[in-house]
Fold:
Amino acid sequence: MIRRLLRVNLSGDRITEEDIPKKLAADYVGGRGFCAKYLYDEVPAGIDPLGRENKLLFVVGPLAGTNAQAFSKWIAAAKSPLTGTFSRSVGGGDFGAWLKWAGFELLILEGRAAKPAYLYIKDGKYEIRDAAPIWGKTTSQTQGYLKKEHGPRARMVCVGPAAEKLVRYAPIISGERAAGRAGMGTVMASKNLKAIVIEAEPKVILAHPEEFKKLVQQQVKLIKSAPDFDDSRQHGTIACMDRFYAAHGSIPMLNFRSGELEGWEKVSMQEYAKVTQKHVGCYACLIKCGKIRKISSGPYAGLTTEGPQFESAWAFSGSIGSTDLDATLVANYLCNELGLDTISTGVTIGFAYELFEKGILTTKDTDGLALKFGDPEPMLKLIEKIARREGIGNILAEGTKRAAGRIGKGTEQYAIQVKGLELPAYEPRARKALGMNFATANMGANHQYGWCGQETSEEAQPRAVSPVADEGSGDIVKYSQDQVAASELSVVCSFARPSLEFLGKMLVAALGNPRFGSEDYLLHIGEKAYNLERCFNVREGFDRKDDTLPRRFLTEPLQGGIRGGERIRTPDIILDEYYAARGWDRNGIPTEETLARLGLEEVAKDIAHFRRRS
Ligand code: SF4
Structure:
């Protein structure tokens, strides 16, 4: 089966269709495997992430556009302007299906357009069009304009004004869904690209259609019989606001100081259910975890918006010690409109609140805003300032790591980030294996890179581990990261991941390659992609010194909550365990033997001098 990519050089308006080489497709399967391979091969070390040499990839899995459930998500990948690492961010909605129907699993964007532009794809024709009427517009204004221009069959992704101002953590938005993390929207805007619009009719070619149909029927039954199916449908990811607070004590409060917050019940899933109007979802997904919510009274009455997902809801409540549900909805809405990553925005604002509490920032620095924990009003103003890089917003637009560097005065200890990426809604002292995933993940602190469900479920494979074990989970972190990478070879949604065995059957029915039917093979390619991403980072100078957590988690016991008193006591021991499980040396560089086992002999040669130095 021929699998194709579209290469768009924005500098010279050159657009070419290419076959993805058969051997490469077999050796990397798809999705995250293609991201790792093409970025490693085509993005040279040391380039400016916001320069012409960076490339932005859009990737869908081999099952996108079919009726397989939750398989039409898409990945945006590039060297991140926030972290300087390999990064990938996963987006939802319909766009993935449309890209696949247009004939492509991979879209590679290169260079920079001479003036604001958008890419239009229809019926094998490609145009770089003038984006002057939408440059500077919010994401809903942009999408509204493009829908009028191209009609109801068009689907699109775009960036907001924050990306145009090169805020380092701007996402790519489709509908009201975001590929949020690590500034993929910033890379897109740095190429002067405001949007991509696709018009396409359903078209999928399957190697074994009858077998595929049966497997989709089985998949639907499996999803419906999952224990959390009803909660996911009813509440979406907001169910985590209750579950993770009560059962795990792992929701961080007050810029990651505490594991509890008075009045948290005001932002429980039952409270969110009261304002929920409708359930919505991505293409071909019966879970429909998206929720349309409406504020019916108070200063924001009438606002109707999709979201927030759990991490966004936490970022605008727990992070700044607020339990104001309406303000959380407004903050989430503003971020979607202006194009800001909700997690990095909320954590960066939490950082500013703590500096204000400590007197390091005063109203003279904050344009008159009194940043008091518990008060969400200044947060709403800061969101707008960040998006427009106004006043204090210009510093916060850089993310916590760079902002701490600019402010000085020892403020890096309050910057809750790894490799520059702000931590999401999980307290590392209450879930230590997940914390080690944050420390080591290739793109910085991302829960989706290695969820470590072995801490929260007795049934998880290969074995359960205690969430507060100081040692003994290094191999679990590796296993979890490789499992995720293997699943993302097909870009299936993390809320509906089938077993690798079942995924293998679906891939064989779709693509006809019997090699993909082996669970071991998929896990092997997941590990291979993970190591290739790591080698991308090694070339950029990343090693053991970067695989660490903010000092707070190592020195300050967690205050309150059921895990109160916990801290990360032995980070070096778990890191050594992790490197040993991965087959990396003590400095975190993949060994020659490991890379040879994964079929990456040429890459081993590329990074040999980094190994000799370590
Ligand atoms: S579970 Fe939610 S995010 Fe995942 S595919 Fe379905 S609707 Fe999209």
